[in-house]
Amino acid sequence: MLKWLSIITLLALAAGIAVGAVVAGAGDQGLIGLTTEVEYLGALWLNLLRMTVIPLVFALLVTGVASVADTASTGRLAARSIWVFGVLLVAATTFACITFPLVLSLWPVDHDAAANFIAGAGGQPVQPASPPTIGQWLAALAPGNAVAAAAEGAILPLVVFALFFGFAATRLPAEQRQPMVGFFRAVADTMIIIVRWVLYAAPIGVFALALGVGLTAGVGIVGLIAQYIVIVSAVTAAIVPMAFLFAVLWGRAPLGRFTNAIAPVLAVATSSRSSLASLPLMVERAIDAMGVPDRVVNLVLPMAVAVFRMTSPVANLGVVFFCAAVYGHDLSIGAIVIGGLVAIAISIGSVGLPGEISYVASVAPISMAMGVPIELLGILVAVEAVPDIFRTVGNVSGDMAATVIVGKGQISPEAAAPASQRG
């Protein structure tokens, strides 16, 4: 269903831009007025997505942290796995924070197209605020009122509170902790159901939003959207060779064997766009083709699919960097660091669903933390199916690399040999 919905939504995006451009070219004030009224349906659709962000992010972070902490208590192998996940996430996030500004400086967005895009999407240019001092930034990390922080969209203090809440929950007795975690998991699942409902109306919402873009910018906006797809997809795809590099240098895996082991996994990931769907094949290839011990694979890979998504901070930051470039918003180093930290935290709690479902919930908190408006997300979600392929391919590459790294030194020569050579 999601596959066809993505195709229909993409067609709705193209149709909205085309119809808006035709109406603008006709110059009929009656049609222009009618088109402007239809745009409000897009604003309604975007608000329906927005309303799920705060409860979904909080619930996912609480259950995600509780899951990590519970798993870590199973032993040193799990603790080492979490350490490896953390190193790979920080490396990928650092790469994103350096690469996206560099790419956008070499291939800047067209300012006229950007201005028309903003006007068409209903947003207003942002005025960069003065960066806070280190003391002000530290003081703002803890929300004086968590409810007020949620109401005001102060996402970074809310993330900090959710992390403290999640870790504190792990100190409770099981009979108290499990019902509470179950409650927040139910809240997250409920928000996801709402997002699914809203996404069923995505063709209508995106068409309405695209009408405004086409009315103001015409078909010239297509180039800007194509630039977004290419930049985010290309940088996200670069996580695959990074995962290979970690597997070879840190995990001491022979490049040829690792490539042979992961090739069919990448094929499944590309076609399914689901790390969860790729899990059975990852287990089989890690054991049979790489020779990683069963006990390592059976612990690390399920953990990785549940809480480790190497491309999540990369792709999500890419969206924010691109939106900032469209708005002409110069991001300070402090804002980039904050965005990176929030992106890592969000990736831990993000759900293993196709990108269209988790898109706004994952990207909006990072945008809000970095001071970048989220109005453009309602348009960009229509083309998320393409970058999402590279998200999944990078994620399973990171999962396999982490498994090899954790299992380093535990692979016997016999186990490491190809299956056809075993006696």
Low-confidence stretches: 124-131, 415-423
Taking all Cα atoms into account, the compactness measure Rg is 22 Å
Structural class: mainly alpha
- Given this structure, which CATH class is correct? Mainly Alpha
Approximate strand percentage: under 5%
Total individual domains: 1
Percent range of helical residues? over 70%
Morphology call: globular
Order of helices and strands: HHHHHHHHHHHHHHHHHHHHH
**End-to-end distance, in Å?**
46 Å
Structural description of this entry:
79% of the residues lie in helices and 0% in strands. Helix 3 crosses helix 9 (174-200) and helix 7 (146-152) crosses helix 8. It has one domain (2-421): Proton glutamate symport protein. It is mainly α and 423 residues long. The N and C termini lie far apart (46 Å). It is built from 21 helices and no strands.
List keywords for this structure.
Proton glutamate symport protein, 79% helix, mainly alpha, globular, 423 residues
Short description:
79% of the residues lie in helices and 0% in strands.
Which secondary structure elements does this structure contain, and how are they paired or packed?
Blueprint lengths: L1 H25 L2 H22 L2 H20 L3 H31 L4 H11 L12 H8 L4 H7 L2 H15 L4 H27 L1 H16 L3 H17 L1 H11 L5 H18 L2 H14 L5 H14 L4 H16 L5 H17 L5 H16 L6 H4 L4 H22 L6 H4 L7
